[in-house]
Automatic annotation (TrEMBL):
Coiled coil: none annotated. One of its GO terms (biological process) is translation. This is S1 RNA binding domain protein. InterPro entries: NA-bd_OB-fold (IPR012340), Ribos_protein_bS1-like (IPR050437), S1_domain (IPR003029). Signal peptide: none annotated. It comes from Shouchella lonarensis.
Amino acid sequence: MSIEAGSKLQGKVTGITHFGAFVELPGGSTGLVHISEVADHYVKDINELLKVGDEVTVKVVNVEKDGKVGLSIRKAVDRPEREETARPQRARSFQRSGNGSHRGGNKPRATISFEDKMNRFLKDSEERLTTIKRQTESKRGGRGAKRG
């Protein structure tokens, strides 16, 4: 049986390593499911999800010239197509004011350009660096103090 990229096959887990699982495919060939291709979430220990002898459905991700077969379990699962949706808007701005309060209410606000955001970030960053520098200098004894 010819194994082609994109095809879904049934296989049997024949070995498990810290980086993935080896799956025997129809026709006797073996492929590797990398640990990142086992589930949609982060997998710390593959042994929590797979055991030797498990029957799994895999999708062939790639077949290299030297015969190595890359497989994916998570891509073999059919999911309904999601519509392209815009990212959800944030509920409130993260502007800081001197008294610790934030903007109240759900008033629509003007959109801020990227350049304005960058300028505000640079100003805040410089102020923080100045404060940190002042604090560390005072701990060392101030300007021009001899280190001993």
